[in-house]
Specification:
mainly alpha, 68% helix, 30 helices
Length: 621
Amino acid sequence: MELTCMFVTTVLVLQHLASSKPKMKSDGVNVAGWLQSLAAFTGSLYRKYPSIELRGLLQYIANQLKAGSSVDLVVLSELLAKMAGTEFFEHLSAAQVQAQSGGEALKNEAFPMQQARLLKKPILKLKDALVSSNLTIPLLVLMAQQRAAIIFSTDVSHLKLIGQVYDSCHLTLLQFLSFISQHFTPRSALINMLPTFQQLTSGYNLEPEVVFALLRPVIPYCFTDNIRSVSLESSSSSSSSSSSSSSSSDSNEDLKLSSDDGGTSSTSSNSLAANAVPLNPLVRSLFPESTWNCISPELYTTFWSLSLYDIHVPVEAYNEEIAKQQAILAQIDVEMRVAAASSSSSSSSSSSSSSAQQTPASNAGDQSLAKRRKVHAGIVSRLEAELAEQQANHERVMARIMQAKDSWLASSSRRNDITIMFMQTCLFPRCTFTSDDASYCIKFVHLLHRIKTPWFSTLGFFDKLLRDVAHLLFSCTESEASRLGVFLAESFELLRSWRVSAAVYQEQCEYSPGFLASFSSTRRTTYYDFMRVSIKWHTRLSKALATCLVSTEYMEVRNALTVLSKLTRLFPYLRKGATLVLKNTRKIADEDPRYVLLCPRNHFRCCVLHRSHSHTDRIGT
């Protein structure tokens, strides 16, 4: 009877979702309260009763996306959060930022999932519902297409509202990508259901950043020329082990994803696994030939294929977490010794009948301590093994990068052209995709500098970045501006590390080809020259952001405040720039009635005023 009631509840949920009630508030951007409550209820319902039929609800969401409506994604977001514990965090602590570049064991300690063992069954049921209904890839493709179409199809005129709808759709897409990456294991199961690279880019017209975010976990197994490629034997064994699971998927008649030439969603005959080809020739169709006259397809695929895990090993984060777990183990050992001593003393001083009554409680306490010790000892073992595995992977990746770096950039192109093309095709699309990608981008730039990549100008890159970044603010949503702020904050941290002393600069920069005055010159940029250009960069960015703060466009002001709030630890550094920026932030309160800007404005002012004693008229450390 209870199961029947749950099925009836599911039907009622679908009826309410399909009703004619307005799903948006009168402002045109915020989801109506009744829909938010219904979505939260639905997520909790399927978490508590995962055996209830879920395919109908997933099919409804897919059909709504196909009809051009993204508002029902709030239901999918709640399902992913409640059933799988998949949530996407934008604002992270310093320890969590470090953990993002580590493996799953380190991430699990930095982002502990409450009652993770209780989610095993809901996760399995959600995965089975997606696979059995053949909706995993269609839902992903439809979300990505809707994300790209929001700018053109949303019936509102205010950029703020369009940006918030876009951010909401993007966040759910990231949740779904995270769920696929974490729970579709072994990788062969995912490989067999994925369409080919050409279908994703040309057939479904997905943006490159979405395609690579989906393919990144399986790229080593599917493309033979990639820098992370594994042996063909492991690739073929992965594919054969999952053929039986892929053949059991039901066909989806209600939703067909068609390309321009009438093709439908991928089957086992045209899946990614069945069409493993080199990746570098495929990306040539993404951009005109003039792009490849500046950067090579090898650099493009390397940049988009790697992740933080490949190019940065957070040794300090691992050591800190291992030390924390070992301290817990030491404390448990002390408690066990105290318990053993207490038990022996009580047993020797008590009568036999009294001792018999105390023994069960004492044994229960000893067992609890033993279980706790086993858990924490297991965490230490996993962290140590994971650190060793990541270091080995990092060494393999770096060895291949050192072999390939000489052909990444074109020697015949001008320095400025190479920098612009790299920013347009690689840097800016990825650094605004997620906060992890923002950190990855600056670490990849640092990597290009450290390995002395021929024809890459580190000095020219930062000069172009800090010259043009303010112009990008108007085209960003609020979330994208936050990620851009993360990228700029880590950029300033890198530049600050080079300014620590002349000795550090000479060791890391002065004799690097990235700090030559030009490709045709052998004149190097001295420490004094670098300090001078740093003053120019700070002054230029201070003026640009101060101008944004007095703009008549809400998005430009809001995004400038968002970026500035991420930079407060290192920028503005010069007293003149700080005075100018603070002066313009006062105008927000004096002249702008939009109270929504006052909170970020006050936060930024407090941070800058707190650091006012460190402002100076010259660049130092």
